[in-house]
Amino acid sequence: MSDSSLYSDRLDGETTENLWVFVGILGTALAAAVWPTGGGPAVVAGLTALVEVNIRTPDPWDKGSEAWNDMSDVFEQCKARLTRARGDVDTYWADQGAEAFKAFLETRIEPALDAIAQAASNVRNMCDDMWWGLTTNLVSYLSVTGAALVAAGVAYLSGPYTPAVQWTIVGAWAAFAITTLTAVLTFVQQVWTAGR
Amino acid sequence: MTSLETEAMRKAGQAISADAKSFADTVLPKVASLTLPRDAFPMFAWNLPDDYERVRQGVGDVAAALQKTMDSIGTALTTIATHYEEQERVRGENFTYQD
After folding, report:
1. What is the pLDDT of residues A97-143, one digit of tens each?
2. Residue from B3, B21, B36 to probe the interface with A (highest A Cβ count within 10 Å)
3. Is B65 in Cβ contact with A112 (below 8 Å)?
């Protein structure tokens, strides 16, 4: 699809599509488990859809973090080499040209290298945060949904269907899913805005 | 062989030229390949793809400008070293140095 070295339609690891299928299966199972409530499945379906659009594979962000870290190192090393070269030359070369050369490296080139090294390491942090956000989202969604499924199963096995109990399960699940999703993404947004 | 200490300048020129070359050969293509399509972002982060792309392009632009500048500096240093060596050679031909 794109010429990105971080993202492709044919990732080896877990793709976004696989995760969606997984979330879809869990959502369907939970909807079936709370069927007697009447409205429960609709709530589950709505939330599952909301979760789906926010679930993405964290893979590219992991690769991105590494790549930007390398970039930052490259810029820093380049700056270190320039500083050393400037010092070596300064020892032997003393005329107007030498001064101009030294000043140009010091005031233009080296700060520019510093700036892009810093920018690259900021992007690395952003990638780390996004990776963390996506992973946390996925893990908490899976664990909470799993727990809700178990609870629904237990309620089912322990006696006749009681919509109230089932609603409690759906309610707790929905509240948690929304809270996690919002909290994690708000955090990522804030970090990104700060790091810009 | 020259009595002037042009070796350090020549080396610095070569080092800076080498950096410029590695920028052109690997760094710039690498930065260009670090794009992330909209699909990689969750929906709640709808405003972040543009941010990411701006920073990536910014780093790429600065690196490209640095590449050109370092290339010029590297060549200039080598040229200056040659200039000093040449001057000495010409003077040396006109007069004999005392031991």
Report:
1. 888 888 888 888 899 899 889 889 988 988 998 888 888 888 888 88
2. B36
3. yes
The predicted complex's ipTM stands at: 0.82
Contact A30, A46 (CB under 8 A): no
Which are the contacts of A13, defined by CB distance < 8 A and separation ≥ 6? Answer: A57, A59
Torsion of the alpha carbons at A59, A60, A64 and A67, rounded to the nearest 10: 80
Q: pTM, whole model, 2 decimals?
A: 0.78
Residue written as token pair 């990105």: A4
**3-class state of residue A149 by DSSP:** helix
Compute the distance between CA of residue B91 and CA of residue B73 in angstroms, rounded to an integer: 27
- Give the Cβ contact number of residue A129 at 10 Å: 20
- CB-nearest to A5 from B34, B48, B73 is B34
The CA-to-CA distance between both ends of chain B, in Å, stands at 16
